[in-house]
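ARCHIVE CARD
Drawer: 12
Card no.: 0347
Subject: one protein chain, sequence and derived structure
Cross-reference: see card 0346
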Amino acid sequence: MTEQDIIGAIELLDKEGVIEEGATINCIKERYHSNIYYFSRYLNSFKDSIDIQKRLNETTVLLLGLGGGGSNILTLLSGLGPKKIKIVDFDIIEKSNLGRQFLYKEEDVGALKTQIAHQEVSKMNSDIEVETHNLRITCVNDLLPLLDNVDIVICVIDEPQYDIQRIVNKAVVTKNIPCVFGASQVSRGRVYSVVPHQTGCFDCLNIHYTKIDSLFLEQFRGIRTVTKKIPTIAYGPAMFQLTSAIVDEAVRLITKYAEPMSLNRQYEINYENGASFTHKPWGHYPDECPTCGNGKEENWEIFSQYGEIKL
């Protein structure tokens, strides 16, 4: 065997991804090693996989909501090991939460969700700094101070109903911070992301549907007129499907280990058959959007159907 044969064999093995750089995984805590090996399947360099975990360990996340979505998201984040998690909720734990909010136990009923969430994260991963805010968000200024030094926002809060997405959208666009939104609708869950100055925002999405669907405004107006309180329809296994997608999308945005799935489009999961697909993309409307562009809110009737978005 000649020297050229050996070099050729090495080049072939390198091309097939068998040979990895001599980066040592021991610079990262053992609890994160499986994450690194997972990321390495997507990347050409093992060192890049280590750098991705380091990036996660340096990240500050703002998590809005500690219900069926947020409580499970918090558990997943604990395994990823961000430097800091700011958690926001105002609610107490009720017995009806226990079927889908697995962070909480029977003895926690009656306690603040923020209190128990802080306690449980500290047990799962003592490396993470947890900052709690027992707060009901009603306006943009409630949120703006919480965005200081935050790398990414995950929004799974649902009150005030319908309006909270516009409030959060306005805040993250103002502060130029990416946000992953998640919502569950009985048998389906949706994930979409807003990256200011890169994607359209939530108001752009409203404008988009107004433009392409002549029934959108009428349908939304009808939804807003419903005053009867609807019971929570949520199922633990379905929540796991949705929250896993939300957290993975946040990791994709933070680290770029893989292409995000929900930029300018909604990623939908069908809980019944496990299928997933992306909706047609929506655009960025810099000349028409009142939040991320130069448009005026009064030019779009859809925004009059929301509550007033106060600063």
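Annotation on reverse: The longest helix spans residues 236-255. The chain has two domains: 1-57, 65-305.
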